[in-house]
Amino acid sequence: MPATSNAAPTQTTTQVRHSTAELQTMLEKATEDFNTASVLLARSKAHEKDLRAEALQESKKVDAYSAQVSKFAASVYRGAGVDVMSSLLRTGSPQGFLDQMSMLDNLSRSQRNQLNELSTARRQLAQSQAHISDELATQATNVATLKARKAQITKDLATVQNLLPRASRSTRSAVGGTYTGPASGNALKALQTAYAQLGKPYQWGAAGPGSFDCSGLTMYAWASAGVSLPHSSRMQFSSGPHVARSALQPGDLLFFYSPIHHVAMYVGNGRMIHAPNFGENVQISPIQSGYVGAVRP
């Protein structure tokens, strides 16, 4: 009786390359999800800081108006034994408090205005505090997304490293190049910077100077020209006017796939410079398949 083996069949080179290509696509998607969540988290934290500053100012207004209202309301109720501010807070609004006052006619126009200002300040403070709560909830969601994406990237990266033939893994080749095309102005500066990164390895979440992912390279290049881009290919797609493929100029950003998870820079003559994926270096290549649009920063 012939012997049998339980060993898993060995993948052919073609199968390994196919599996690696699929994992690299998954890795790039996860990387751009991570980058987008990182940008959103940073924006959320900045917004929270602004909201807290607003809430502090509103709180100071409430304190100031409360002191003024308490002073004149106490004079109205002097001798009545009523805790004026406690009554005001229980009614929920100055008008509700005023409706209970038997000496309403004793209030001057100025005093009425102070009550209205207190009501407005309290309402604005409550709104600011609610906005802060919403912002904190958004941050919690973004943190959870970052953790999940980071775990996925780490897992996929280990798998790709095991599958990718050692000979084809990224090695540090000669670094740097010189752009000699027709670009000018900011586009020229951005392309010169991008060319200087030729040969540097792809690394997820990296934005230079030693390694890059796709959106990190375009962000780094255009930053040298004084143009700020988010570290996210999807967000970069909304960072400037869209350009028809027939009207592309060197320096334009090229976007790929749906949902978008790759970005490159057009260099002219149907070619682009980009950080392709794990196992590859920053390089120049023909515009690849999956093109969905272009933006001029």
Structure explained in plain terms:
By secondary structure, this protein is an alpha+beta fold. It has two domains: 14-163, Orthogonal Bundle (Helix Hairpins); 173-295, endopeptidase domain like (from Nostoc punctiforme) (endopeptidase fold (from Nostoc punctiforme), Alpha-Beta Complex), CATH 3.90.1720. It has helices at 13-76, 84-91, 94-99, 109-163, 185-195, 214-223, 233-236, and strands at 242-243, 253-256, 262-268, 271-274, 283-286, 291-295. The chain has a six-stranded antiparallel beta sheet. α1 packs antiparallel against α4. The protein is elongated and about 85 Å long. Residues 1-5 have low confidence and may be disordered.
